Amino acid sequence: MRRKCNPIPKLHVRKGDRVKVLSGSADIKGKIGEVRIVDPVKMTAIVEGVNIVTKHIRRSQDAPNGTISRTEAPIHISKLQVIDPKSGKPTRIGRTKNETGWVRVAKRSGEVLPTDTSRTRR
Question: Which are the contacts of 86, defined by CB distance < 8 A and separation ≥ 6?
């Protein structure tokens, strides 16, 4: 018999969380930003102001001289850690059940993290 499992996993990072980048290149490691988009299928997130890449756009009728665009690239979820709202330091996340249902809890301070129920895909 085949085991049933959730194709979209529960993640410790959600849209609107303040996160710290744990690893990566020297220019993104240690940066703090807010999560804008989470893709649970690819296990990536786009963090505001972090992992900015440049793309050269060739000449066209819209841009006769060509342009350079700067956009934020996705980062793997395992490289992000949520910032504790009470202490302002990175913390691990736990889940606890209360009267309203399951909530995310910061392990460092025990404070309940605000929940944004809209899970956004890219």
Answer: 106, 108, 109, 111
Q: Which residue has the tokens 């009470």?
A: 86
The CATH number linked to 42 is 2.30.30.30
Q: Report the amino acid identity of residue 50.
A: V
Structural domain range at position 55: 1-82
Residue 61 has pLDDT above 60, yes or no: yes
Q: What's the average model confidence in pLDDT over 64-69?
A: 92
| pLDDT at residue 22 in the model | 95
Instruction: Count Cβ atoms below 10 Å from residue 15 Cβ, excluding itself.
Output: 16
97 and 48 housed in the same domain: no
Asked if residue 59 has pLDDT above 90, the reply is yes
What's the structural domain count of the chain? 2
Residues in CB range of 12: below 8 A, 6 or more apart: 77, 82, 92, 93, 104
Specify the higher pLDDT residue, 88 or 4. Answer: 88
